[in-house]
Specification:
By secondary structure, the chain is α/β, with parallel strands linked by helices. The protein folds into 2 domains: about 5-45 and about 270-360, Aspartate Aminotransferase, domain 1 (Alpha-Beta Complex), CATH 3.90.1150.10; about 50-270, Aspartate Aminotransferase, domain 2 (3-Layer(aba) Sandwich), CATH 3.40.640. It is about 40% helix and about 15% strand. The strands form 3 sheets. It has a 7-stranded mixed sheet, with helices on both faces. About 45% of the residues are buried. It binds pyridoxal-5'-phosphate.
Amino acid sequence: MLKPKPSIDTIQPYQGGKPIEEVRRELGITTDIIKLASNENPFGPSPLAMQAISESATQVHLYPDGNAYYLKADLAEYFNISAEHLILGNGSNDVLQFVAEAYLAPGDEVIYAAGAFVVYSLVTKLCSATAVVVPMVAHTHDLSAMAAAITEKTKVIFVANPNNPTGTMVTAEETAAFMERVPDDVLVVFDEAYYEYVDRSDYPQTLPYVLAGRNFIITRTFSKIYGLAGLRIGYGIAPPPLIETLNRVRQPFNCSLVGQAAARAALKDTAHVTKSREQNAVGKAFLYEAFDDMGLRYVESEGNFIMLHLEQSGADIADALLKEGVIVRPIGGYGYPNAVRVTIGTQQENEKFIKALKVVSH
Ligand SMILES: Cc1ncc(COP(=O)(O)O)c(C=O)c1O
């Protein structure tokens, strides 16, 4: 058999949340199944986005605009920046991969936290770079320890804020102290996939680092609060010279025509975003209370999901929940064998999840 390059052998294929249809097929479940496993928006896409999707359907025999001119123009106006600060990805994962492909070579060091979003490890291995994995403190990125881990070989530092699967965030003060310690030739990536869900006043606004011309990339996505995970649109915000570099590794038509149209419409539907954020807060409070009543420990989350500690294997509980028609995510792969991550659903879904959890946990 043909051998891949050595670093590929160390990659475990990404385990996504099981699709509903797969669970139905595998377990022969005929009743309703709910998926609370991939931090999608339980309220669905914006109605404006759905309209844009059906309108753009007539055009799908054409290639999309590879430069995403209109979506970039809308985002540029939204952020009051120039379109040269933006790059579009097939999901924000695509942008994380551009970073690795453009900047990482064997021997380069990449710093990220143990228990941080798994894609940082995947793209580091993909490029045969060396991972420097820094332990978290209280399930939270330890920015001070991450700064202390910088060496002359450090090329990129990934920070998920808020982090998946722990749901924790670093503060503006911690970020400012960290950025003072990061040398100019190190690229900092702040992955803000759950940005729109955060309501803490000490959450860092990172755009000023980009506008100050630091080697800084913010990644955001339409997959979470905007409810378009299935269309794969994410983006990066960075100083124009960095964007120009990232564009060299981007495939010419990486963002679909329908996805671009839907994202433009979703961006304008502020009512849908507000409703999703508010309902998420309500669902979070409901779940916290239910967990408290059951005597279960959890990590307070700034996102649309909660990491729940268990007295037993998270994989076993996730399997048992599947049989009750509820898909959650075991997170043993993140170093938390006795925990699961559950996405905050609609009220009905949250109630079904709690009912099922009471059945399976003892
Ligand atoms: C922290 C974080 N970053 C990035 C992503 C990637 O999202 P997408 O590629 O759909 O934009 C996710 C998805 O779960 C995530 O949790």
